[in-house]
Write a structure and sequence with these properties.
Blueprint lengths: L1 H46 L5 E5 L6 H8 L12 H9 L4 E9 L3 E8 L2 E6 L4 E5 L4 E3 L10 E3 L7 H21 L1 H4 L2 E5 L6 E5 L5 E5 L3 H17 L6 E3 L7 E3 L1
Length: 254
């Protein structure tokens, strides 16, 4: 009988503890739901607050002020009210921008990741200094960075706009050819002179040697240059120029 009473008492204590945990669990659940409801009620007020921070990444030639001046004063716009697509369209319209990704981030932040266009050459003329990109677009240089690029040089001021753009395209096509098919030769070419659009002239890194290459069949002429260059480098006397325009060989002037 005493044992039965002891077991019954123990069961009642276990039940009381169980009821205590059930009540505590319910109370905790109620407080959690209240907290979540308050957070949900606060979200609309939070997301419509003005943007507090703008992060700009991936810049080299452009500056953050270039981006900000093109997109306006975003700090006065609500975080949720900004059109990410419209903002990206505004930024990609900048001359230097190739691609852009605009993201919302917390708290109240906009992250702008820019991919700039890759220049293929430096362009030097009597009036300006610029960079040339793959689509033959000419962009002014801010001077923030040093570029390890071939130089397209124009000394004359008398070229017509048509001849000028034709010469630039010829020089760019030659740079593409060197980069694609003759990477070892690409580093040997320091300048491309475009004073005569129908007769481009290379300046080699080796002794500043001028090489006349004309305006066509660049691949065949570069192959001839590669064949003769080791011979040129072995000679003690300096050469005046090389002329690759001859159909059956190379003209060498001492």
């Amino acid at each position: 009988m005493n044992n039965f009473g002891f077991v019954k008492s123990s069961l009642e204590k276990i039940k009381e503890k169980k009821d205590y945990f059930v009540v505590a669990h319910k109370v905790l659940l109620v407080f959690t739901l209240i907290f979540l409801c308050l957070q949900l009620l606060y979200i609309p007020f939070f997301v419509y607050k003005p943007i507090s921070k703008i992060e700009v990444q991936g810049l080299r030639e452009l500056s953050e002020s270039n981006i900000r001046s093109n997109i306006g004063v975003l700090e006065r716009t609500s975080w949720l009210g900004v059109s990410v697509f419209q903002l990206a369209q505004q930024i990609v319209a900048l001359p230097w921008v190739s691609n852009v990704v605009v993201q919302r981030c917390m708290p109240l932040c906009m992250r702008i990741t820019v991919q700039e266009k890759k220049p293929i050459a430096l362009l030097k003329t009597p009036t300006h200094f610029a960079l040339l990109t793959k689509n033959y677009k000419i962009h002014t240089v801010s001077g923030n960075y040093a570029w390890d690029l071939p130089v397209i040089q124009l000394h004359k001021k008398t070229l017509s706009p048509v001849a000028y753009h034709f010469a630039i395209k010829q020089a760019a096509s030659l740079i593409f050819l060197l980069h694609r098919s003759f990477p070892s030769m690409e580093k040997n070419v320091s300048e491309i002179i475009i004073d005569d659009p129908l007769n481009l002239k290379l300046i080699l890194a080796y002794q500043g040697l001028p090489v006349y290459i004309g305006s066509e069949k660049y691949k065949e002429k570069i192959e001839k240059l590669i064949q003769i260059l080791p011979y040129i480098q072995k000679q003690k006397k300096r050469f005046t120029y090389l002329d690759l325009r001859h159909p059956f060989g190379v003209v060498v002037q001492r």
